[in-house]
UniProtKB/TrEMBL annotation:
Pfam families: Fasciclin (PF02469). It comes from the Eukaryota. This is FAS1 domain-containing protein. Residues 1-118 form the FAS1 domain. The lineage of its organism: Eukaryota, Viridiplantae, Streptophyta, Embryophyta, Tracheophyta. SUPFAM superfamilies: FAS1 domain. PANTHER family: FASCICLIN-LIKE ARABINOGALACTAN FAMILY PROTEIN, OS02G0491300 PROTEIN-RELATED. Gene3D superfamilies: FAS1 domain. Belongs to the fasciclin-like AGP family. InterPro entries: FAS1_dom_sf, FAS1_domain, Fasciclin-like_AGP.
Amino acid sequence: MACNVIVATLSLLFVSLISIHATLFVPLNAAVLDLRDRIDIDRNLIPYHIIPQRLSFDQLRAFEPLSTLPTLLPSKTLQITATPLNFTIQHTFITHPDIYLSSVFAVHGVEHLFPVPL
């Protein structure tokens, strides 16, 4: 449920406020619930889970392993850490590919939050 609320909220945000193409990586419900009682959430967490281009799961899989993708966090990237049998980003499985696709953005569910590098 929490994942659905985040997707719906971000959908409205992107459609109404932001005119960029983007891909969002949204953690599973358990990862989101772990955050709900924390007051020290890193303000870089959300921008680090968004890349400024729309990529479907098939498009993501076309990247070579160790390729990097820019994020909305300046000078920080996400790395494709896939193997022939498993597709991962930052060593995190995409558990729900293509949760939502539109002409301007894509949303993929991930196993857990990506740790924000220092």
